[in-house]
Here is the input.
Amino acid sequence: MSEQTTATRYALVTGGSSGIGLETARGLTTHFDVVGIVGRDPGRLAEAAQDLSSGPACIETFQADFASLTEVRRLADDIRARFDSLSVLVNNAGVWHTQRTLSKDGYEATLAVNHLAHFLLTNELKDLLVAAAPARVVNVSSSMHGRPKSIHWDDLMFEKHWAGFWVYGHSKLANVLFSNELARRWKDLGVTSNALNPGNVRSRITRNNAFLNALHSSPIARLVVMTEADGAQTSIYAATAPELEGVTGRYFDKAKEAKPNRATGNEEAARHLWKVSQELVDEAATPWTGEARHVPATFPRGFAQGSGLGLPPGPLSMRPVPFIALTTLLLGIILALLYG
Ligand SMILES: NC(=O)c1ccc[n+]([C@@H]2O[C@H](COP(=O)([O-])OP(=O)(O)OC[C@H]3O[C@@H](n4cnc5c(N)ncnc54)[C@H](OP(=O)(O)O)[C@@H]3O)[C@@H](O)[C@H]2O)c1
Here is the structure.
């Protein structure tokens, strides 16, 4: 009998223990030999692995809390110990807080989990991805990335103004800027990077928000809000579609290419976000003492906030108060209509 020469193909999904991530992992089981799922809760991870075990792939579970960059580094070691290459990394884990929360490293937790943890994990897994080339990094963003008009450089940890919608949207803008910058930096390595919006999906992401939870669960909303399986389709497409071989630095919605917010086209902002993110993850190598963390000087000379975007330079290119008031009013009207 001839010796098996085909290399094992590995894929990994963060936030794979529930929601869109679990359904993405399920979709990947028919394309890869081994599918790894990363989750923070051992019970949910075990349940998800059991659920996926009837599929054709071997399932590996990895436990890590993305609110700790030390755990993300340990996770990368764990992955390197069990995988010898990585064909697809789906950066999917995400959180939406309803009050300002700090990560275990002292950073604003939405930015820390949704962006910094994935920035670090992706860079840590570079060698595995290159070893599998052609390989793909898929970054799950949101249509909410279009809310902020730029990265909130002068208050990156939202110490002055915090609102869940804005901070979440900001982290999702960071996902697309990171995805684009990764595409430019790794273009000659055979590793592509694309970002996407999964759509409006009924999942646990709104669990901390009673209002959005009620809205998502209402009978009429159920007709327009997608299931988690439908929400996973764009991620599965970006991870596996043969026609996307070599396609990089793009944005997808409804399993086709779409136009992201123009703020994502600001290459200077993307480069600067990379630099600042690197400084923040380096800083977190020192255990947090509870003191305010040093956040690097975020305003390079001559780089005005909103530059290149047709926005006036200044600290408030995001204006949360009118947006929240308007959104609350609109959601109130929708809820009143739904519940009569
Ligand atoms: N649902 C939507 O309408 C929607 C729309 C646009 C974009 N998205 C994006 O889609 C992605 C998946 O969200 P979802 O809707 O499937 O929500 P979800 O059901 O809440 O899933 C989020 C996943 O991220 C994991 N996670 C959260 N915080 C974590 C932490 N500190 N450490 C490790 N893992 C953590 C969760 O783990 P646990 O199981 O332990 O909670 C879960 O597996 C997110 O990036 C979200 O921003 C969702």
The longest strand covers residues 191-197. Residues 15, 17-21, 39-41, 44, 65-67, 92-95, 113, 140, 142, 197-198, 200-201, 203-205 surround NAP (CB under 6 Å). The domain at 10-339 is CATH 3.40.50.720 (Rossmann fold).
